[in-house]
Amino acid sequence: MKFYFPEDFLWGGATAANQMEGAYNEDGKGLSVQDVTPKGGFGPITDEPTDDNMKLIGIDFYHRYKEDIKLLAEMGFKVFRISIAWTRIFPLGDELVPNEKGLQFYDDVFDECLKYNIEPLVTISHYETPLHLAKVYDGWKNRKMIDFYERYVTTLFNRYKDKVKYWLTFNEINSILHAPFMSGGIATAKEKLTKQDLYQAIHHELVASALATKIAHEINPNMKVGCMVLAMPVYPMTPKPEDMMKTLELDRSNLLFSDVHVRGYYPSYAKRLFKENGVEIQMHDGDEELLKNTVDFISFSYYMSICETSDEIKEMGAGNIFPGVKNPYLKASEWGWQIDPIGLRYVLNTLYDRYQKPLFIVENGLGAVDELIEDEQGNKTVNDDYRIKYLNDHLVQVGEAIQDGVEVMGYTPWGCIDLVSASTAELKKRYGFIYVDRHDDGSGTLERYRKKSFNWYKEVISSRGGNLK
């Protein structure tokens, strides 16, 4: 049976400022945590930016945004997920007055999107905490971060209240469990970070996120604010009861974040989690009331599923931010991420059953090594049938979930134009419909070329999914 996606479904693509903009030190921009991690989010941290950091130039979106947005419009995008670089607006993060040149840049980007009737979907903080806030305040460990974030979001909401309808407060907020520096700007070494400090930092972020939701609704009631979590369904390796309980515990460690965002309070299972880890959340007056400012929708990234087992000996696979036990029934990408399209339907159903809130798939895609070739007409392109199959199979499952009764707002596959990998800072790990001629050795013209998947996705959008197989 042929299925057509809803007419108001938001088709588009997703990116992040630190992985594409470049111009890391232009027009008053300050340094972020990304500027001192040349090997990616899990690599060494340098004192200053180094020439081998691919993110410093990215794909030069800062100077080429008009060309890039025009290409997205050619595909028929209804929405474009981007992030704002905090350090373009407040270079250090703790200033009282924002940087006008940074604000104007995003005015120009949003105007360019709206010219083509593309709705901006804006991530407020996407793995780019100002470096100054990491060094001086130890990032989100420090409660003062809530004040800095409040000033930042208030500036954004007032400036763009008539241009941006959809906002996400933090990217993959639950990733702070595994990448505290990249995700939370926490300078304390991961091995020295106590559970008390980590969960207190998480509390600060959750309060800041709820505060942002409150402020957005006060400034413009039509604005929609969502949380953004890393979704990774966990399957028990066997039906052994011990495996089932381990699966439940791992699943809850991630669900804690969306539970607070959607329900407005800490779930009951958190009490035991905190007690057994020696955690006592320091609540300030008004925190519990602030948390009641719940999100309008839930957005998430989905790349893969994992397994869990109570066995001490287990074969681990690679993964997005954190690895999991390998599933013997699934194939994997070149980077070892296991491919599970049905897992996306599973996530959509379980989240909707749990929350009854609109869902937005804001990341999904296949990182692969692409080969630029010439077609019969002499045009440079990439025959990325592997990417088309991956996206096709996942979108079929999105369609199944919608037929299951799940309310899905839209779909923005990751890296719709090639950009620098967050985890490894590579460019050879490509996700886009658009090939960017830049390479890990720094060479390349930065020219853009349409891949085979470009026209395929254009047809997906124009046919409302009618060409999916």
Automatic annotation (TrEMBL):
GO terms for molecular function: hydrolase activity. InterPro entries: GH (IPR017853), GH_1_N_CS (IPR033132), Glyco_hydro_1 (IPR001360), Glyco_hydro_1_AS (IPR018120). Keywords: Glycosidase, Hydrolase. The active site is at E363 (nucleophile). Belongs to the glycosyl hydrolase 1 family. This is Glycoside hydrolase family 1 protein. It comes from Fusibacter ferrireducens.
